[in-house]
Write a structure and sequence with these properties.
CATH superfamily of the largest domain: L1 transposable element, RRM domain
CATH architecture of the largest domain: 2-Layer Sandwich
CATH class of the largest domain: Alpha Beta
Number of strands: 9
Distance between the termini: 78 Å
Strand content: 15-25%
CATH topology of the largest domain: Alpha-Beta Plaits
Number of domains: 3
Radius of gyration: 32 Å
Largest sheet: 4 strands, antiparallel
Order of helices and strands: HEHEHEHEEEHEEEH
Shape: elongated
Length: 240
C-alpha cells in the first residue's frame, strides 16, 4: 500500500507539472492570437491607407490631364508634324484654333518602326498608330473642341492630312485623356456593362458613367468595386 501511495503521489505531481505546462502554452497561444489580431488589423488599416493614397494619386494625375484631348485613328508617318496635322483636323471640323490656344501637340506611346519601302498609310494603319494628344491652355477651349469633335465625328480624308497619295477615309475618335487606371476602368466598364444590357458608357471630367437606357439616371463608376457591385446587384434583381 505504501508503494502504491508513493506511485500515485508521483503521478499526481507529474500531472500537476503537466497541467502547469499546458496552462503556460495556452497563455502563450492567447498572446499569439492577440498579436495576430493586432497585426491583421494593422494590415487592414495599411491596405485602406494604400488604397486611399492610390485613389488620391490617380485623382491628382487625372486632374493634370484635364486640359488634354486624345485623338485616335490618325495614321502616323515618319517625320510628321503633329501640330500641322491637328490644325488640318480643326479646319475640317470648322473649329477655329490659334497657336495661343495650345500648349503642345504630340504623339504618345512607344515610337513605331517604319519601313522605307512603304508609305505611311501602308506601313502604319490608323488602328496601330499612336494617339495624337493635344493640350489646351484653357479648359473651356478643350471642352468646346471635344464637344465639336464628338458632334461632327466623321470620316476624314487621309489625303487632306498629307498622309496618303490617294483618297482614303479614316475614322477619328475624340476623347478626353485618361490616366492608365481610368482608361482600364473605362474599357472594362464598356465591356461588362454592354453584356449586362447597358446602352451607354462614357467619361466626363475623368469619371466613367454608365446608363441603362435613355431617360435613366447616369451611374458614376469610380473604381472596379463600384462596377462589380452595381452590375452584380442588377443581375441579382433581374434573376429574382
Amino acid at each position: 500500500m505504501r508503494l502504491i501511495r508513493e506511485t500515485v503521489g508521483e503521478i499526481k505531481s507529474q500531472m500537476l507539472t503537466l497541467t502547469e505546462h499546458i496552462e503556460k502554452c495556452n497563455l502563450r497561444l492567447d498572446e499569439y492570437d492577440t498579436k495576430l489580431d493586432h497585426h491583421e488589423k494593422r494590415i487592414i488599416t495599411l491596405d485602406n491607407i494604400i488604397t486611399e493614397l492610390k485613389d488620391r494619386l490617380n485623382s491628382n494625375a487625372q486632374a493634370q490631364l484635364r486640359n488634354e484631348v486624345e485623338i485616335i485613328g490618325i495614321p502616323e508617318a515618319p517625320n510628321e508634324n503633329p501640330a500641322h496635322t491637328f490644325r488640318v483636323i480643326t479646319q475640317k471640323l470648322g473649329f477655329p484654333i490659334e497657336e495661343s490656344d495650345l500648349d503642345f501637340t504630340t504623339r504618345v506611346g512607344p515610337a513605331r518602326k517604319y519601313s522605307q519601302n512603304k508609305g505611311p498609310t501602308e506601313n502604319n494603319s490608323s488602328q496601330s498608330s499612336r494617339p495624337l494628344v493635344v493640350r489646351f491652355l484653357s479648359r473651356n477651349k478643350r471642352d468646346e473642341f471635344l464637344k465639336t469633335g464628338k458632334m461632327k465625328q466623321r470620316s476624314i480624308n487621309a489625303l487632306d492630312l498629307g498622309l496618303a497619295t490617294e483618297l482614303k477615309n479614316i475614322e477619328l475618335y475624340f476623347n478626353e485623356r485618361l490616366t492608365q487606371e481610368n482608361r482600364y476602368l473605362f474599357r472594362t466598364a464598356r465591356q461588362q456593362s454592354k453584356v449586362c444590357g447597358y446602352k451607354y458608357c462614357w467619361t466626363k471630367n475623368g469619371v466613367v458613367y454608365i446608363r441603362k437606357q435613355e431617360g435613366n439616371s447616369a451611374i458614376p463608376i469610380k473604381k472596379q468595386e463600384d462596377l462589380h457591385q452595381i452590375l452584380n446587384s442588377r443581375k441579382s434583381s433581374s434573376n429574382s
